UniProtKB/TrEMBL annotation:
Protein name: Phosphoribosyl-ATP pyrophosphatase
Keywords of the record: Amino-acid biosynthesis, ATP-binding, Cytoplasm, Histidine biosynthesis, Hydrolase, Nucleotide-binding
Subcellular location: Cytoplasm
Alphabetized Pfam families for the sequence: PRA-PH (PF01503)
Alphabetized InterPro entries for the sequence: HisE, PRib-ATP_PPHydrolase-like
Similarity comment: Belongs to the PRA-PH family.
Keyword Cell wall biogenesis/degradation: no
SUPFAM superfamilies reported for this sequence: all-alpha NTP pyrophosphatases
Pathway membership: Amino-acid biosynthesis; L-histidine biosynthesis; L-histidine from 5-phospho-alpha-D-ribose 1-diphosphate: step 2/9
The reaction(s) this protein catalyses: 1-(5-phospho-beta-D-ribosyl)-ATP + H2O = 1-(5-phospho-beta-D-ribosyl)-5'-AMP + diphosphate + H(+)
Record bears the keyword Repressor: no
Main location, first listed in the record: cytoplasm
Matches recorded under Gene3D superfamilies: MazG-like
Length: 143
């Protein structure tokens, strides 16, 4: 997904010297992104990419989650292939993987916000799982 497809509406601060986004506090970034997503919920559809998706409803949002999931999978496969072959393009492939993962997280957070959940709910669930084996955690789920 290109930056033109969905500008993230100031979700991160820019470094004035380099013009690149700095991430110094991941919690702050998630909180700010949640705030931006919540603020776009009732905005006119033509005001932002996020407002457009909200106006199209859950199915469109989930379609974007699926697209970004597929793009993340493909980027991971490309990166692994590049690493195995010793490709000179590994740095670009890593960037692609990170970029696609960011797009996936963004759209997952949009889906959560649309449904009245937040990243904090996900973080609480991840924290709950610390100290559990993956097998025990899966077995504890209700069928």
């Amino acid at each position: 997904m290109s930056d033109k497809e969905h500008p993230q509406d100031g979700a991160a601060d820019a470094d004035n010297d380099t013009g690149t986004a700095l991430v110094t506090d991941s919690s702050r970034v998630l909180i700010e992104l949640d705030r931006v997503l919540a603020g776009r919920k009732n905005a006119p559809p033509d005001s932002s990419y996020v407002a457009t998706l909200y106006s199209k409803g859950l199915n469109k949002i989930l379609e974007k989650v699926g697209e970004e999931c597929t793009e993340t999978i493909l980027a991971a496969k490309d990166l692994e292939s590049g690493q195995r072959s010793g490709s000179a393009e590994v740095d670009r492939l890593k960037h692609d993987m990170v970029s696609e993962t960011a797009d996936l997280w963004f759209h997952c957070m949009l889906a959560l916000q649309h449904l009245g959940c937040s990243h904090e709910d996900v973080l609480r669930e991840l924290a709950r799982r610390f100290g559990l084996s993956g097998i025990d955690e899966k077995n504890s789920r209700k069928p």
